[in-house]
Amino acid sequence: MSSNITPWKQLHFTWWRMPEKEYNVYHRFRPYFILGQLDHSKEILIPKDHPDTGASGYEVINPLYCYEGGKNSFKELFAGNPTTKVDRSAIIVNRGWIPAHLRDKRNRPTTELNSRQLVKVKGVFRRGKDVHDYKVPNNPNNNEWNNLSLEDIGIFWDLPNFDEQKYYYFQALEFNEDRSNDF
User: Fold this and answer.
1) Which residues pair with 47 in a beta bridge?
2) In this structure, what DSSP letter does residue 105 have?
3) What's the helix, strand, coil split of the chain in %, to 5?
4) pLDDT in tens, 54-70
């Protein structure tokens, strides 16, 4: 059964800055779900062949806004204005694989309409690679994406919490949950 891990407010969760051993013991392959607003306007397509058939296609990456993060400006703080700028923070979500002919959004079903409606995304947390582990770099200026570099994606989308999100991302999965044992 999946657990809710939606961060409703900015909390210092252990899952984004924990040692690898702790991630492997407590969070790896553990099913979770997150509630938030999926932003379809910010989408990254990373070329990837289907693992079973070898057909060419793309992995679809979107931000899921689910909590508010804050930033303090030291310049404003020293000027006597201790205000915190609140921004919507997001978790990077890998929604899965689509065939190459669906690259153009006009060919996709109308379910990808941008709305402020809350969605429930089920999946697991995956460890991201370091930005230097990739052989072919991304070029966000030309919208050329070759790998799942979380730091590049967070900076490209101007996420206020990009520094937190460069370690782990959320892989959306379909679970076949058996509810017969629920009390």
Assistant:
1) 58
2) G
3) 20, 35, 45
4) 899 999 999 998 876 65
Length of the chain equals: 183
In a domain, 180, yes or no: no
Quote the number of domains for the chain.
1
Whole-prediction pTM value?
A: 0.79
Confirm whether 182 is domain-assigned. Answer: no
Q: Provide the H-helix boundaries in 19-149.
A: 20-26, 74-78
Tokens 């206020």 locate to 160
Higher-scoring residue by pLDDT: 160, 131:
160
> What residues make up the domain containing 53?
3-172
Taking the C-alpha atoms of residue 109 and residue 102, their distance in angstroms, rounded to an integer, is 9
Between 81 and 93, the more confident residue is 93
Which amino acid does the sequence have at 1?
A: M
Cβ-based neighbours of 154, under 8 Å, separated by 6 or more: 92, 161, 162, 163, 165, 166
Least confident of 21-30, 34-43, 105-114, 157-166: 105-114
